User: Fold this.
Amino acid sequence: MSKVDKRFKEIEIGKLTKADWNYKEEDALTERKLIENLRKNGQVENIIVREMKNDKFEVVNGNHRLKAYKTLGYKKVICYNLGKITLLAAKQIAVETNETRFAPDRIKLAESITDLAKEFGTQELSATMPFSEGEINNLQNILTYDWNDKAKRIKCPSCHKEFKKN
Assistant:
């Protein structure tokens, strides 16, 4: 049986402060989707923090989630406490944890989206996912595209640019 890492802690929202050096952009649409996602699913990811003075914690990763938790009236959240680390160490961890993400396999993503859209509909999916209804429809269209028909065009679900198969 493995031990639970004792650096995971439930911390009061009032003790958490947003990092003023956070490099992620603000986006009202994404913020609204994040709030709806948290309203639907609750906290499924922890916030990463570092210890500051006066029993306060600076958010290293999770600044947008912190704002959403406050909007939703959360009193406490689960955090991973890095302890008393330097600002540079915090910035390094922020970049590492934010940017080490894998690109999606578009066909598998399209298959998952198609299955989900059948059950929940594109409007419900677009409320909590990082896709508009049009992007969800475009992802579904990838699966039904006739790759042998040279006259057909397909729209990229990411950039919305149309491409013709050669």
